[in-house]
Every structure is written in structure tokens, then in C-alpha cells.
Design brief:
The complex is a heterotrimer of chains A (235), B (439) and C (297).
Chain A lengths: L1 E10 L2 E11 L4 E6 L5 H9 L6 E6 L2 E2 L5 H7 L1 E4 L11 H8 L6 H14 L1 H5 L10 H13 L5 E5 L7 H16 L3 E6 L2 H7 L2 E6 L2 E7 H6 L1 H8 L3
Parallel strand pairs in A: 3-8, 3-9, 6-7, 7-8
Antiparallel strand pairs in A: 1-2, 1-4, 4-5, 9-10
Helix pairs in contact in A: 3-6
Chain B lengths: L1 H24 L10 H10 L8 E8 L6 H17 L3 E2 L2 E9 L4 H13 L5 E3 L7 H11 L3 E2 L6 H9 L14 H17 L9 E7 L2 H16 L3 E8 L7 H10 L3 E5 L5 H11 L5 E5 L7 H5 L7 E3 L6 H14 L5 H25 L4 H12 L36 E5 L2 E6 L12
Parallel strand pairs in B: 1-3, 1-4, 4-5, 6-7, 6-8, 8-9
Antiparallel strand pairs in B: 2-3, 10-11, 11-12
Helix pairs in contact in B: 3-13, 4-5, 7-8, 13-14
Chain C lengths: L2 H32 L6 H18 L4 H30 L4 H24 L13 E4 L2 E4 H23 L1 H11 L1 H6 L4 H22 L12 H14 L4 H21 L5 H15 L15
Antiparallel strand pairs in C: 1-2
Classes of the chains: A alpha/beta (235), B alpha/beta (439), C mainly alpha (297).
């Protein structure tokens, strides 16, 4: 579904990614793990079009989307939920969700999606008239996820959903992702919380200093010695 | 595609900038003359025959800014006057350097000084804004560049002129001190009262104007004269240039319920707006609006709200004047106003006459020789100009300096009252077309 | 003090404020969505005035049609200048956008003024009035032009409000003002929204210039005064805040009218600037400034 070949990306003259290659098949739940500053977010930004790649190729559903602006990548069916969420703070929850369906002109479909999101996150239905900026951290993350789902994405890309959340809420978020996956949504997840991540995903890539150093199924990775030492920590 | 678009944009911008650079500020003659001062010194010491003899005349006017219409008319009139002599006096070529004062004292001073030091102007001519005159007088004195017929006028300028001999480089003003002209309004009004044409309930007046040297000079002059005639000044209002909404001011004036308001504005957009709004607000008073007719299109803006408004403006009275007006309109596409284009034309011609006299007397045209002729011939009343299109005679006398002789046969503006956009002379009696009427 | 005078002052201030509001709304919109400190706003006002003049006087169209022509043309002019100037600049500048865009508007203002001058000459193109009627409101007689210009400004603002609040595109404009990346990620084409926003801002200015034609004639430099006044308003209320700009327009209108009455004689500028200084001292974000960035919430 998503194929990335030899992706090079960075900021101005500072190159962050070197020859990153990965792929995601329809219906998979894939994680991209790595330490702080390894280039995980950069990879996602390059996929979502917030950053123009310096080289390499990104294909989605057979279409070459390398260097597309973000709005066209969204149109192609990739929904990216950033680490900072990028919510419309001064708008209500409902308006945020409606904007998530900006590209959809079918009112019925929008209505169905809205109901779907509300059934996923009942708290959002309760707060539909409240301004996004006034929500709690967990609610905001749910809203961001909900907004991402409103466009009926083929692929949902989520950056650090557990960041800054209380452990109990982190669990809820992970559960939600799992549920989404169960409903057939293809997911690409970036996380620092490696153990939890590997427990819910199918496969994972390890990104180190801008390069993919490991790629295997999550089960294998949980047993990987190197990973145990450096990322999972000796318990 | 994007690149092409960008290039087109760049081109448009450059053209725009070029146009803007060419239009008002500098003519081709004025640019690329950075070596001018050097040339000048050579000329003064020993004029070699091969160097073309040139006299550079710095014409100062507001070419941009709120009064730029006046600047435009000045430029066209001066051009027409010098075209008639083919820009030549004797074996001297006359070059104009257009100096943009922008109606801003600071910018005018800087531009004028640059014109002297960089462009090397020998003589200065004209000006419109009173606010820029005071510092310019010092510049003229400092660099000994005689400046002719600046129209900026106020009592302060006269006081400064008389304070020191060096200010004689400010060679005589092109527009007399306000009080010499405003007295005509007072006379016209008093005349109407004595003849029973007008019977104001109380002799109370509100003075108004733009917040600048000219307006304040004007209101000061007419205010004093009105007080002498028994009037009481109940309020004075000054509005920044550029303002076109006068409702707040008019509300205030209306609440004072006076029979007369008198003032002037040099903002050609604001003045008609004020007159129109005065009628909209149903002000019953008589309005003296000095200079309403300065810009040709005023009546399009006021419509008949200008009925009964009193102004002082010369008309295109003679055949020659009408011919000038027609030629001007045809050549430049705008209608000249007598008080700016007309006066500038006459004064440019007077200036040419001074240059010709200088050349005849001394055989050379330099700052010094022009100054000498101006001082010895023009300021003494020996050299006058009688071929003008507006006034019978432009004449300076030692006792009137820095002003011209004002009055019948000399510099005089008739007092008129507008009806349907046309001015009818109501004063002085000898040339009166009709009696003053009261709204 | 006479009640009639107070009434008169308020009405005067209200009419004055209406124009300020509609000009300031355009400024606020352009700043809020595009981060442009727009110093060529006055030139679009002048353009609108010219269009209305030529439509009304030269072509002899009826007033409403003339105003429509003026708003359509200034809308187009805004769109074209955005595509031709600001769009390429945005592609080229990254961190320095605010400064670059400001300089571009300042330059554009000079270029447009001089283009007006070259094409239309230093002529004052004004009209006596669009409508000959006079309205009587609360015992005051007011010319139809003032009242109608006021209502046009209000209708334009109301229409803008409806557009921003109720339509998909309007919601997208608000979204861009609040979070550009968020807007991109939900599929909003930023370039189109920016062009549209600039065009809308220009249209508001053009409509202002057109409807005020009887008050201030069209001439190359006519835009300076409305530009300064509307900047004064947006500075007072906080940049990029549309509802603030509306309220601010009226506050400034009424404040000027009242301060003129009581101070007069050239002191009204001092009064306005004192107000500005005090506000900036005690509330630097402006009267309605908030931490959350949004054009109209």
C-alpha cells in the first residue's frame, strides 16, 4: 500500500534521513521506533508532505506521491496525526471534526463518519460544542485522532500519541489504536514507548541516526537482544 | 510557468518603479549630475568656452503627497513658460531640476539641500507649502542660492525675512501675506452688513483650517481683522490633512450656532468634502472658504452645496488667460486652476524676465548675477512684469518686501460668491458682478 | 449638555466607525490568515473608488451596480496581486515571511500609487452624491450616501461573518488562520485559501472606497488616510482579530467624534494616540487580544 524507497530528507542543509526504505501492506499495523532525534517524525513529515523529500520515492496505492503538497497527500488517503496535534484551538470539537472531512462533499457520509467517531470517543460527543483549546490532553489527542478519521483515510499515520499523557490515558489511546486496527484501518505508528508499541503492532522498523537498522515482525523484535539492551531496558 | 509568472511580476514592478521615478521626482536632466558642483567651480573661476553654459533652476513643488495636484500644475506651467523661450536665455541653456517637497518640511529641506549640493542648482523657483519655507530660507542664505516667488506665506516668514539681510536670497514671495488678502473678505462682509444685505444676529465667527502653517497663518490674519471689525471668535478648528469626514467638526460648529465660519484648507480632497458636509449637516452660516476653487474639479465634488460660499480667486478674465487655459487643458489633460497653474505661469515668466535682464546687464547667468539683478532691479520696483494673464502688474517695492504690491492694478484677488459652480464677483465694488447673498 | 448634541455625536461617530470597521476587518483578515502586515490596503480602497467613479460617472451605471462593479474588480485585483506577488514570495521566503511580506506591501503601495498617477493623473475624481435623498433619523437629517455606505459596510461584514461561519470554504479560512499545518493535513489547499483571503480583504477595501466616493474623491494618494485609520483600529484591538476590528472601528469612530467635540483644534490626534499608548502599555496584546490565534471565533 505504502512503499518508501531510499528516502532522503532533512532541513535545509542538514540531512536527517539517509536511504530510508519501508513498506506497509493494506490492513497492517506497523510501528516505527527509535530514540529521540533518530528521524522518526521527519520520516512521517516527509510522507505526509509537510516536508519535501530531498531524494527517494514515496508511492501510495501505486501512485508516486513524492513531493506532493500535504493537502494532496491527504486527498490521496493518508491521514497524519502529528505530535503537536495541530488542532484548531479556537473552534469547537464539532467544527474540528467537520474540517477533518473537508475534502468530502457528501453530507450523508460526513454524518456517518461523525457518528462513527462519536461512538469511538463518546467523550467528544459530550463536548461537541466545547472549544478544542479547552480540552484536556487526552481529549485533545482523541479529537486529533477523530479528526484524522473523518476523512475516511486508507492509511492513518500517528506520531507519538502517548506523549505527555498520564499512563492510564496512554493505555486508552493504545486500546483505541488497536480497535481501529481491528476495524480494518491501516496504521503507521511512531512511538518511544517501545514495549507497549511492539505488543500491539504487527511489524516494526527501527530507525537509528536516520537509517533503518532493523525490520521484523513485532514478536521477533520483542525477543531481539540488541533491542532489549538498548530500547526495552533490562528489567 | 511559475518562473515566467515571477519574471513578469518582476518586470511589472521594475516598470512601475521606473515610472514612479520618472514622473515627479527627477527629470533626466536632474540625474547623473553628481559632478555638477565641480563643474560649477570651474565655471566661476574661468569659464572655458567649450563648456556649455547652463543655468540650473530648481523648481520646488509638492510633486507627491496630498497637494501633488498643485505640483503637477506648477510643473506644466513652468514647462510651458520655458518652452516659449526654448529653454534659452542668451547663450545659456536653462535646465529645470524638479524638487519634490512632498508637503513635508523635513523632506523638502532634505530634497532642497540635495538639489543644491548634488544637482548644483543655481537658482530656486516657486514653492507651495508654507510649512517648508522657514528652513528653506536658511538654506538659500547658506548656499547663496537666490529663490524666487515661493508661494508659501505666513507672518512668520515675513518676520524672518526682515530679521536679517541674508534672507534677501529669499527673493520675494509669489503669494502675498494672508492679511493683505484676507482684509478683502472682511471688507466685503462689512460692506454687505452696512448695505443691509446681511444682518447676522450676533457677530460671532468660527475659524477653521487644516492643521498646518498656511491655514493657521490665514486664520490668524483674518481672525485679527474680524476682531477689529467687531467680531468675536468663538472657536477655531484645525483638521489634519487627508481627513474627509468633517461631521465631528461640523457638529461642534453647528452647536455653537454662529452666523459665519471662515477659513481655508490646502487639502483639495477634504475642502469640497467639508463644504458638502456643511450643507448636509444643515449649517445655516455663511462660509468663507478661501481656496476652495484652487483645484479645477471642486464643483464635481461639492455640487450645489457650494452655493453662497465665498472665496477669493482670480478668474481667467483676459483673452490671453483663456488661451492659456485652453492650451494647458489640451496639452496636459487636466484643467488648470488660476491660483496655481495661472500664477505659476505668470511668475515663471516674470522669472524669465529677470534672467533676461541679468544676461543683458552682466552677460552671465550665475547665482550671484541673478541675485544681483533681483536685488537691484526687481526688489526696487524698477523691473516689473506686466504681460501676465492674471494680474495687471507684478511689482515689488522695498517697503512691501518680501511681498509684491497688493491692490488694485497689482496683485489682487476678487472676492467671489459661488452659485451653481460659477464665481460671481461681489467685491471690490468697481468690478462687482452682483451683491452678496445670504443663504 | 444638550441631548441632541450627544445623539448627534454618537450618530456621527457611528457613521465614521462603520467605514473604519469595514477597512479594519479586511486588514485583520489578511493578517490573521496570511500573516501579512498589509500596508497597501489603502490602494485597494482607492482602486474601488476609481472603479465606482468610472462606472457611475463615465458609464452612467446606477449606484448599486457601480458598487458591485467596484467590489468585483477590487476582488479580482486582490486575487491577481496575491497570485503574482505574494504567492511567489511565500514560496521563496521561509522564516522571514512577515518582514518580507510587509516590505512587499509597502513597496506595492508606492508602485500602485504611482501607477494610479500615471494612468489617471493627478485629478480628483469625486461625485456630489450617489443618491439624492436625505434620511431623517431621530430628528437628524442625514444624506442617503452616508447611511447607505454605512449599511453596505455592515452588510458586507455580516456577509463575511456568514461566509466564514457557515460555509465549508469559510471554515477552511478560519482553520488556516488557527493552524496552517493542521489545515494542510485535513486537505485544505493553502494557496487557494490565501488568494481568496487576500481577494476578500481587497474587496472590502474596494467596497469601502467605492461607497465613500461622495465623501472622499478618488485620487492617487487617497488611500493614506483610511490606511492609517484602519491600522490604528487593528493596533488598538489586536492584530488579526476580525470581531475586535469591528468593535474597534466603532470605538475609534465614536472616540474621535467625541474627542473632536471636546478637544478640537488639532488635539484629536493627540487624544487618539494617547489612547493607543495607554492601551499598549496596559494591554500590549490589544483590547481584544488573546493567546489563541484566530480570525473570527
Amino acid at each position: 500500500m505504502l512503499e518508501i524507497e531510499n528516502l532522503q530528507a532533512g532541513y535545509d542543509r542538514l540531512q536527517v534521513l539517509w536511504d530510508v526504505s519501508m513498506h506497509i501492506r493494506e490492513g497492517e499495523f506497523v510501528a516505527l521506533i527509535g530514540a529521540n532525534g533518530a528521524g522518526k517524525t521527519t520520516t512521517l513529515r516527509a510522507i505526509a508532505g509537510l516536508l519535501t523529500p530531498q531524494g527517494g520515492c514515496v508511492r501510495f496505492l501505486g501512485e508516486n506521491i513524492t513531493g506532493y503538497p500535504a493537502h494532496r497527500i491527504c486527498q490521496a488517503g493518508i491521514s497524519f496525526i502529528t505530535e503537536e496535534l495541530n488542532l484548531f484551538q479556537a473552534m469547537s470539537v464539532e467544527e474540528n471534526l467537520l474540517l477533518g472531512a473537508y475534502l468530502c462533499r457528501n453530507q450523508n457520509l460526513i454524518k456517518t463518519n461523525l457518528d462513527k467517531v462519536f461512538s469511538f470517543f463518546p467523550i467528544l460527543a459530550e463536548r461537541r460544542k466545547q472549544l478544542a483549546g479547552t480540552l484536556s490532553g487526552g481529549e485533545r489527542r482523541m479529537l486529533a485522532l477523530g479528526r484524522g478519521l473523518m476523512s475516511n483515510p486508507r492509511l492513518l499515520v500517528v506520531d507519538e500519541p502517548s506523549l505527555g499523557l498520564a499512563p492510564i490515558i496512554v493505555l486508552t489511546v493504545f486500546k483505541t489504536l488497536q480497535e481501529l486496527h481491528a476495524q480494518g484501518v491501516t496504521l503507521l505508528l511512531v512511538e518511544q514507548n517501545v514495549t507497549n508499541t511492539l505488543q500491539i503492532t504487527d511489524r516494526a522498523y527501527l530507525l537509528e541516526r536516520g537509517k533503518i537498522t532493523l525490520a521484523a515482525s513485532s514478536k521477533e523484535l520483542l525477543e531481539n537482544e540488541y533491542l532489549k539492551e538498548t530500547y526495552l531496558g533490562k528489567r | 510557468m511559475k518562473k515566467i509568472l515571477f519574471e513578469i511580476t518582476l518586470l511589472v514592478l521594475i516598470i512601475g518603479l521606473l515610472l514612479s521615478a520618472c514622473t515627479p521626482a527627477a527629470t533626466p536632466e536632474a540625474v547623473s549630475e553628481e559632478v555638477a558642483p565641480a563643474e560649477e567651480t570651474v565655471e566661476e573661476e574661468a569659464p572655458p568656452a567649450e563648456v556649455a553654459k547652463v543655468l540650473k533652476v530648481g523648481v520646488l513643488a509638492p510633486f507627491t503627497g496630498p497637494s501633488s495636484r498643485v505640483g503637477e500644475e506648477f510643473k506644466y506651467s513652468v514647462t510651458m513658460a520655458f518652452d516659449a523661450i526654448d529653454w534659452t536665455v542668451g547663450d545659456y541653456k536653462i535646465e529645470a531640476v524638479w524638487i519634490d517637497g512632498e508637503s513635508d518640511p523635513e523632506k523638502a529641506t532634505r530634497a532642497y539641500e540635495a538639489a543644491i549640493t548634488r544637482d548644483g542648482i543655481n537658482v530656486g523657483l516657486l514653492n507651495w507649502d508654507a510649512s517648508e519655507v522657514i528652513p528653506l530660507m536658511d538654506l538659500a542664505a547658506k548656499y547663496e542660492v537666490p529663490h524666487f516667488f515661493a508661494m508659501g506665506t505666513s507672518e512668520d516668514i515675513d518676520i524672518k525675512y526682515l530679521s536679517d539681510e541674508k534672507y534677501t536670497f529669499w527673493m520675494g514671495k509669489g503669494w502675498p501675506t494672508p492679511s493683505k488678502l484676507t482684509i478683502n473678505y472682511v471688507n466685503a462682509l462689512e460692506d454687505a452688513i452696512t448695505r443691509g444685505l446681511w444682518s447676522p444676529t450676533e457677530k460671532k465667527v468660527v475659524l477653521y483650517g487644516n492643521d498646518d502653517e498656511w491655514s493657521r497663518g490665514f486664520t490668524k490674519a483674518i481672525g485679527a481683522q474680524l476682531v477689529d471689525a467687531g467680531w468675536e471668535i468663538v472657536d477655531e478648528e484645525y483638521i489634519p490633512i487627508g481627513e474627509t469626514d468633517f461631521y465631528p467638526m461640523l457638529t461642534k460648529i453647528k452647536s455653537l450656532d454662529v452666523p459665519l465660519m471662515a477659513g481655508t484648507m490646502d487639502d483639495a480632497a477634504g475642502f469640497p468634502a467639508m463644504i458638502k458636509q456643511a450643507r448636509e449637516k444643515d449649517l445655516k452660516c455663511l462660509i468663507v472658504a478661501d481656496g476652495l476653487g484652487w483645484v479645477g474639479e471642486w464643483y464635481d465634488m461639492t455640487g450645489d452645496a457650494s452655493d453662497y460660499v465665498i472665496d477669493q480667486i482670480p478668474g481667467w478674465a483676459t483673452e490671453k488667460a483663456v488661451a492659456f487655459k485652453d492650451e494647458f487643458t489640451e496639452r496636459w489633460g487636466i484643467e488648470p486652476s488660476p491660483s496655481s497653474a495661472g500664477l505659476a505661469f505668470d511668475e515663471a515668466n516674470f522669472f524669465i524676465k529677470v534672467l533676461q535682464q541679468t544676461y543683458q546687464d552682466s552677460g552671465e547667468l550665475t547665482s550671484a548675477s541673478v541675485y544681483k539683478t533681483g536685488k537691484e532691479k526687481m526688489m526696487t520696483g524698477e523691473l516689473t512684469y506686466t504681460d501676465g494673464i492674471l494680474m495687471q502688474e507684478y511689482k515689488f517695492l522695498p517697503e512691501t518686501m518680501p511681498d509684491m504690491v497688493v491692490g488694485e492694478g497689482y496683485f489682487v484677488f476678487p472676492v467671489i460668491q459661488y452659485f451653481g459652480g460659477a464665481g460671481k464677483t461681489i467685491w471690490p465694488g468697481e468690478i462687482q458682478e452682483q451683491d452678496m447673498q445670504v443663504p | 449638555m444638550d441631548l441632541a448634541i450627544i445623539q448627534d455625536l454618537l450618530m456621527t461617530g457611528f457613521l465614521r466607525g462603520g467605514l473604519y470597521a469595514s477597512m479594519a476587518v479586511g486588514l485583520a483578515l489578511v493578517f490573521g490568515v496570511m500573516n501579512i502586515c498589509h500596508f497597501a490596503h489603502g490602494e485597494y480602497y482607492v482602486l474601488g473608488a476609481y472603479c465606482a467613479y468610472f462606472a457611475f460617472v463615465t458609464l452612467g451605471l446606477n449606484p448599486i451596480l457601480s458598487l458591485l462593479v467596484a467590489s468585483v474588480l477590487s476582488f479580482l485585483a486582490g486575487a491577481i496581486s496575491e497570485k503574482l506577488l505574494f504567492y511567489p514570495l511565500r514560496k521563496r521566503s521561509k522564516g522571514e515571511w512577515i518582514m518580507n511580506a510587509f516590505l512587499l506591501t509597502a513597496g506595492l503601495s508606492v508602485v500602485l500609487q504611482n501607477l494610479f498617477r500615471v494612468f489617471f493623473g493627478m485629478k480628483y475624481r469625486g461625485i456630489t452624491q450617489f443618491w439624492k435623498t436625505t434620511f431623517h433619523v431621530l430628528g437628524m437629517s442625514l444624506p442617503a450616501d452616508r447611511i447607505i455606505a454605512f449599511f453596505i459596510a455592515m452588510v458586507a461584514i455580516a456577509a463575511l461573518w456568514l461566509f466564514l461561519k457557515k460555509t465549508r470554504i469559510g471554515r477552511a479560512i478560519r482553520a488556516v488562520s488557527q493552524d496552517e499545518n493542521g489545515a494542510k493535513l485535513v486537505g485544505i489547499n493553502l494557496d487557494r485559501i490565501q488568494t481568496l483571503t487576500f481577494a476578500l480583504g481587497s474587496m472590502l477595501a474596494g467596497l469601502g472606497g467605492a461607497s465613500m466616493l461622495s465623501l472622499s474623491p478618488a485620487y492617487p494618494y487617497a488611500g493614506n488616510k483610511p490606511l492609517i485609520s484602519s491600522w490604528f483600529v487593528v493596533t488598538i484591538v489586536g492584530l488579526g482579530n476580525v470581531p475586535g476590528a469591528i468593535v474597534g472601528g466603532f470605538i475609534v469612530g465614536i472616540f474621535e467624534s467625541v474627542s473632536f467635540f471636546f478637544l478640537g483644534s488639532g488635539w484629536q490626534d493627540v487624544a487618539s494616540l494617547t489612547l493607543l499608548i495607554l492601551l499598549l502599555l496596559f494591554k500590549p496584546t490589544g483590547l481584544f487580544g488573546t493567546q489563541i490565534k484566530s480570525v473570527w471565533e
